[in-house]
Amino acid sequence: MNYLYVINxxxxxxxxxxxxxxxxxxxxxxxxxxHFSQLDIPFTRSxxxxxxxxxxxxxxxxxxxxxxxxxxxxxxxCFKVIYYKNALTHLDYRTSLSYCSRLSEVIGxxxxxxxxxxxxxxxxxEGVYYFGKLEKNNSWHKYEHKPYSYSHSLSIKAARCAINxxxxxxxxxxxxxxxxxxxxxxxxxxxxxxxxxxxxxxxxVSYKGRLNIEHFGYxxxxxxxxxxxxxxxxxxxxxxxxxxxxxxxxxxxxxxxLINEACHIASNCVAITHVEYDExxxxxxxxxxxxxxxxxxxxxxxxxxxxxxxx
Length: 311
Ligand SMILES: C[S@@+](CC[C@H](N)C(=O)[O-])C[C@H]1O[C@@H](n2cnc3c(N)ncnc32)[C@H](O)[C@@H]1O
Hints:
binds S-adenosylmethionine, seven-stranded mixed sheet, single chain, 14 strands, about 30% strand, VC0802-like, Ribosomal RNA large subunit methyltransferase K/L-like methyltransferase domain-containing protein, Rossmann fold, alpha/beta
C-alpha cells in the first residue's frame, strides 16, 4: 500500500522539531511537505501530519485512472469525492470539480456531501493523478482543555512531540514521566493508546494531575506523588520536562541530576530543557540520537533523546 502524508508546520518556530519527528517516524530526512511512503505509521499521534491519503490508484492519464478506479468496484453507503488541493500543482476549480464528479459515478453506494462516512480524494501532483481514501488528523487536541493547568505546563504540541521523539512508532513501550506536573505528557500518552504513567514530588501538583486524567476517564492512580530518586521500577522510556524558572529555584546541577536520574530508570530518556546541555551530557556520558528545538518567539525548548553510554 502507498500513502501520501501531508505535513504542516509553522515556520520557523516548529520547523526543526517537525523535521526531527519526521526522521523518527519515517527513518529518513525530511524533504517535502507531501511525503509518499509505503510505511503505515500511527500518524494521528503527530501534531504535524495533517492528513493521509491511502492511495488506491494513480496514473498520469485521468481516463486511465477512471478505468482503474472502476475496476476496484468501490462501494460506500455514505461517501463524497473531493479534490485535494496541494501546493505543488494547481488544477483549476472547474476541472477538478468535473473530475471528482466522474469519479463519483464509478463508485457504488450513496453520496452525502455534508456528513460523509468515507471521503475519497483526488489530487494531482507533478504530472500524476492520485486517487484514494482520505483520513484527516483533526482530533489530536481533544484534551486541550483539561481542568488543571499551570504556568509550567507543556503545550499539547510539545508533549506529543516529546513522546513521538522517544517512542517512535512503538505501541508496547513502558513509559514514565517522573516529573509529570499536572500530567500533560501522561494524558497525551494515554490518548495515543500508550502504556504511560507519571509521578511528581509535589503533592498538590500530582493531585491535580490525577484529577486531570480521571476527568478524561483514565485511572487516576497512574499518577502518584513520588520523588524521582525513589523510583525503583525500570522503564523503556522516561520523558522528563525539567523544572526551571524563577519559581522553581533550581540550579543547573539540580536539573542535570534529575535528568541523570531519569536516564537510570529507563533505557532511553527524552529530556526537555531550556538551555543546551550538549557539553554537560558529554561529561555525564549521555549520548543523544536526536536533538531538536521548539521555538516560541525568543523562548526555546530543547528536546534531547538520551541514552547512557554504559548500557
Ligand atoms: C516543568 S514542571 C513539569 C510540568 C509538566 N510537564 C506539565 O506539563 O504539567 C517540573 C516538575 O518537576 C517536579 N519535580 C521537581 N523535582 C522533582 C523530583 N525530585 N522528583 C519528582 N518531581 C520533581 C516539580 O514538582 C514540577 O512539577
